[in-house]
Amino acid sequence: MRRVADAYRFVLVELSPDCFESAYDVIYEAFKHDIVPVVLAPPDVTLDVPPNSVVNSAELQQPGQLAAFLRVLMADASKYESFFAWKRTYHVANLEELMCPLCVALLEQPMRPGDRLDLKEWHMRRASSPADKPLYGVDGSFEEIENEYGETQD
Question: Would you say residue 105 lies in a domain?
């Protein structure tokens, strides 16, 4: 992507790229290198990207409309730069930055061997609290229930 960014202002992105696992891999690589992704998408596809960060061909369906729009962006630096304004309020997080602390936390030993969360006890304490509202009908789901024969089940 670095070579593309050095030579071009845009990168064309297919929804099913041959060299990447997903279109989002290409889009987020482009974000890292300050190049505007031009996503070739049908009208019924919604992209999960920051606002005004990609050119979506679904919004430019008339013949020649996409090419004309890209020419406008190339001629007007402020319009082109507007596709990077999202970086003031959003951040592209590296998956390793997010997952490494989680993995470390999961692998840490508890401070004391007996300090383990008893999920059933925690849930029962919360479910029996009068101040708590029902949680979408699952409150009490860990309680013992009696079947139709009067036998207790967990």
Answer: no
